From TrEMBL:
PANTHER family assigned: AMINOALKYLPHOSPHONATE N-ACETYLTRANSFERASE-RELATED-RELATED
GO molecular function term, any single one: acyltransferase activity, transferring groups other than amino-acyl groups
Organism of origin: Gimesia fumaroli
Pfam family membership, one: Acetyltransf_1
Gene3D superfamilies referenced in this protein's UniProt entry, alphabetically: 3.40.630.30
Name of the molecule in the record: Putative acetyltransferase
Length: 164
């Protein structure tokens, strides 16, 4: 596996990898199960937009994993130098490259990137049902700090009245 910097022409491939990889572990997917599509867009569209936001926020913090010059995964990062924290919002691989240690190598690469930036902490989030992520992150020294519950409320008065 080779790790290289992100290039703008990678974006569509990263979005495709992300949508496939986040099935079953996406907050947006859970919202759609409860409320249906929002503004004619499904959870996959919204999750793909997260990758676009990563590319806008800090494109130099996205690292691409390649095998034989084919993109097989990526990790996105951004950092807050004043706070001393590096953030990892997204990481995904194509199915045939999961479980081979590539995610670990990419995470280690991101952590080294944060060290080079002289940051103090790295932060990553996952859902409780993501057993693979939970195991991987703790094996690399991440510690669970707190559990967060996501609440969603409909904003249409008719939706609120129906649910009461």
């Amino acid at each position: 596996m080779k790790i290289r910097p992100y290039q703008p022409q990678d974006l569509n491939t990263l979005k495709e990898i992300t949508v496939e990889a986040f099935q079953g572990v996406s907050i947006d997917e859970g919202i759609e199960r409860e409320f249906g599509t929002i503004n004619h867009h499904d959870w996959k569209w919204r999750k793909a937009r997260h990758v676009e936001a990563d590319a806008i926020r800090e494109p130099e913090g996205i690292f691409i994993a390649e095998v034989e010059e084919k993109i097989v995964g990526y990790i996105s990062t951004w950092h807050d130098p004043e706070a001393g924290i590096g953030y990892i919002p997204n990481m995904a691989f194509i199915p045939e490259c999961r479980g081979q240690g590539m995610g670990r190598k990419l995470l280690e690469y991101a952590l080294d990137h944060f060290r080079q930036l002289k940051l103090s902490l790295a932060k990553i989030e996952t859902l409780e049902q993501n057993a693979v992520g939970n195991h991987l992150y703790t094996s690399l020294g991440f510690k669970e700090i707190v559990k967060q519950v996501h609440f969603v409320a409909p904003l249409s008065p008719s939706d609120t009245e129906e649910s009461l």
